[in-house]
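Help needed: design a sequence for this.
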């Protein structure tokens, strides 16, 4: 199944690339003919500067999902993914960006992977983060945080009880030291008797 999806994706990319090349060729040939006609009749034109194109950037949501899955993936899975994208020597960061761009281009794939991330996090007992947000009103899913917060509060209370018990024992030891020191005619200084 995965092999069929890969073949379909490769075929789709090849067809898309051929279509882009054909459009560019048509544009260039018509541009050359047009430029030749303009050059015969027009005055000299100022030299144009060409700015480098900006490569597409994945969305934050896609980056979060891709990074979660790539970082947790086995070395073999990463190697296969890098091979699938055509460069086994790419860094994990480059792989994450390419995977995120793929998710951005395929909303169904992104939804599937987002559900997988949430399932993994639920199985591990991690809070389930809501990846969607509005810039002016962030939404935080606190559904699973309640029990986690309760566990942390209970642990803090237990630590405080242990701390109180330790401090009481310490005061008792210091009191015993002072009493023994006075009984022996000495003066208590810190944890010593002189």
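Sure. Designed sequence:
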């Amino acid at each position: 199944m995965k092999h069929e999806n890969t073949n379909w994706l490769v075929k789709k990319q090849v067809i898309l690339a051929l279509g882009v090349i054909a459009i560019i060729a048509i544009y260039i040939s018509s541009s050359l003919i047009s430029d030749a006609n303009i050059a015969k009749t027009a005055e000299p034109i100022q030299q144009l500067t060409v700015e480098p194109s900006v490569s597409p950037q994945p969305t934050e949501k896609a980056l979060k999902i891709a990074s979660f899955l790539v970082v947790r993936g086995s070395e073999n899975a990463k190697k296969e993914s890098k091979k699938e994208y055509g460069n086994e020597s790419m860094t994990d960061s480059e792989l994450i960006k390419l995977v995120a761009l793929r998710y951005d281009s395929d909303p169904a794939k992104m939804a599937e992977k987002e559900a997988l991330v949430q399932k993994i996090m639920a199985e591990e007992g991690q809070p389930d983060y809501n990846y969607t947000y509005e810039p002016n009103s962030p939404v935080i899913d606190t559904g699973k945080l309640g029990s986690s917060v309760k566990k942390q509060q209970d642990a803090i209370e237990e630590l405080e009880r242990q701390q109180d018990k330790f401090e009481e024992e310490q005061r008792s030891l210091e009191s015993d030291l002072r009493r023994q020191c006075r009984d022996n005619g000495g003066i208590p200084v810190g944890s010593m008797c002189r």
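The mean pLDDT is 75.
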